[in-house]
Amino acid sequence: MGQQTHIRTIMTTQTCNKEQALSKLINYASSTLGLSFLQIQKKYNDYPICLMYYMEKDAKEDIIEVRFDQEQATLSCVFDKDATCKSSYLFLDNLEHLTGCIKYLNSIYRYDYLECQWKLPHCQLTLKKTDDDVYLY
Fold it and tell me: N or C of the chain: less Cβ packing under 10 Å?
């Protein structure tokens, strides 16, 4: 009986830690919206950062990627012509945690089924699946 209680406590603690990490990542992503390229670069200077300039035909975009090793995720910020972050994307390393991520989002935020997104206080969050990746934006 004591061992089952111990296992349940560990699982609850692990779930809580994952929820805290996800909450932190969502906060990171939403806090970049509206910031300038330099502000984001300064804000995350303690993390590995990749600065990119993307060009294809007439499309040109500045992109900053911030790596969060402990949380096992990458934040990617895309900028408008005024160098202001117009959208941010969270790429999770471990897709096995996706079900827990969705449960967490459903427990905290209202999901709009018509728009297929969670409504956060200052932004919306959408889950997108591609052939080889799943990300939140």
Answer: N
Burial of 39 (0-12, 13-18, 19+ CB in 10 A): middle
pTM for this prediction: 0.76
- List CB contacts of 61: < 8 A, sequence separation 6 or more: 53, 54, 78, 79
Q: Is the pLDDT of residue 6 over 60?
A: no
Q: What is the rounded CA–CA span in Å between residue 56 and residue 128?
A: 22
The continuous run of DSSP H or E covering 17 comes out as helix 2-32
DSSP 71-102: TTEEEEEEE-TTSBEEEEEEEES-GGGHHHHH
